[in-house]
Amino acid sequence: MTTIADFVDELEEIAPPDLAETDDRIGLQVGDHSHETRKVCVSVDTSPAVIDLAIQRKSDLLVAHHPLIYTPLTSLAEDDPVARRVTKLVRAQTALYVMHTNYDSAPGGINDVLAARLDVLDCEPLTTLKADPYVKLSVFVPEEAVEDVRNAMADAGAGMIGQYTHCSFRTPGVGSFVPMPAAHPHTGSIGKLEEVEEYRLEMICAASWAGEVIAAMLETHPYDEVAYDVYELANEPIRYGYGRVGTLDDRVSLADFAAKVKSVLGLDHVKVSGRNDKSIRRVALCGGGGSSLFREAAQAGADVYVTGDTKHHDLLDADAIGLAMIDAGHFDTEKPGMVALAERLGRTFAGSGIEIEYIEP
Fold this sequence. Notes:
By secondary structure, this protein is of the alpha/beta class. Helices cover 31% and strands 28% of the residues. Strand 14, helix 9 (294-299) and strand 15 (304-308) form a beta-alpha-beta unit.
């Protein structure tokens, strides 16, 4: 049986809660972690229409980007629009889980998906909310267990380098040991020197993930006592933050890039600030309402900044410093990330019998 808690574990691996703003309202807002999950809906909003649709679909869990409960409720009287939606969910036994600013910042989240859809390459965060140093984990593994241990470590978050996963390096060697009387050796005999063909398996991971990676490695490793080392690295740390900035393969005009944004996001129109013939190569973006980050976009060398909810004076100020802006809407710049989340969950829980779908009214 797959429970809501199982889904929460997966969602919090995708978008760790510690990436959220301190005053954000994320996590399980309605429901019971122990309830079984057979149907999951994913959405951008928690509007009345979305909640009605999730209930109509007989969803056990609604995963939304925008919180339903922002401020504490003092009453569940249904003349309050938020309380009314909460009680609807409770009556229908539909849980609600929110991943908001943590999914904005997370690798593979709202902004990375938007960048990929727009063919923006070599992206880095537009702002830095958190920097996580790298560590290298080196473990000695018998030959027959190398692939299992590597895969377990990778599944826990090790071996991610850029757009590649499961990155590792291994070198062969010979390990030796003498099992003492209380040992339970995988191979060899108590009191006798044993030599075993082993591999030194090395993978890197974010320091904040090291505990989970080590736990996964120890659980999979066949030895009762595992020899491993953890090294701090001087590599550039992993940066988490809002927005992304990267480059296009080729220069295009602002008019052509705006047309691409419309086409990719399925829009009839976008709001554009800047000369149509402006040359565009470096692109900044922030899904949702990122108008206030236009200065960061300019400082990052962007030719154009794609976001939603732009403000009149921000557009004027951006134009004054030579930055073009494209307003493609709050909802429409976040939607691709939630569609991708539904697809990702579908792959993760494939074969479980759980139905997962993206919904919008």
